[in-house]
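All the exercises in this workshop are built on plain-text protein records. The record below serves as our worked example for the rest of this section.
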Amino acid sequence: MSRQKKGFIMQITIIIFIAVFVYWFIVWQNNSIITTSLTYSSEKIPEELSGLRILHVSDLHNKKSFGKEGSDLPDKIKEASPDIIVITGDLIDYHRANVNIAMDFIQSIIMVAPVYYVPGNHEAISGVYPELSSLLKKAGVTVLDFESVHLKKDGAQITLAGADDITFIDKKRGESSQTAFEQNLSDLRAGAEGFTILLSHRPEYFDLYVQQGFDLVFSGHAHGGQVRLPLIGGIYAPSQGLFPKYTAGMYKKDGAAMVVSRGLGNSEFPFRVFNRPEIITLTLLSK
């Protein structure tokens, strides 16, 4: 065999190896779920509720399965042993608004812990939210459409509130959607008591959540910035654009905190890079 032919075969072999590695890497990045564990402490949290374990899910986008058997997500949720589960929107994707896929996921976790849910922009755009909301309630999920509930233990309580995505809000009486959204948040906070957790799909409104007096916020929407780079973080997020400010982890300001999930599925851009699907467990601690 000539040296030229050997060199050609070597080049083809290297190209095939690189292609196989890239394919494996992308599959792994988009299907291997990571569980991120956080804690949050505050003097406002009653001692009776210290240790409450919250599991945060966001942005499933109708993704059917993770792992070889498709059971990785519910299995990881069960392994986390949460006291409650919170979902911050985009269970479905408006490009493929399949309510059945969303409900299959809900049925797989509804017996693990009480589930609380707020919708995202994809529910608003999809046109199927009324059906989805009805099915969620029938399954036992607490849907918080600008509503709140009390989490109680041994006579102590904290408030869990939920906001609809701003996409749901129509312009009324000349007011902008932003103005109406702010008013709804204000009304929601006014009706809350004590330490108050807010579920709201969009992290870019963190300053507003702080101004309104919410203590702890759970959000998603940013997809972790889709592609994450060392020392830089996320590259692009919906509604925040290039090099977004809020993409993953915990952010703090003026005594309040916001937890942003990298989410689970994809939508407009079909791949995650250095940005594996994520669920978050957060444990509340009383100072």
In short: Residues 224 and 262 are 4 Å apart (CA to CA). The longest helix spans residues 3-31. The domain at 32-286 is CATH 3.60.21 (Purple Acid Phosphatase; chain A, domain 2).
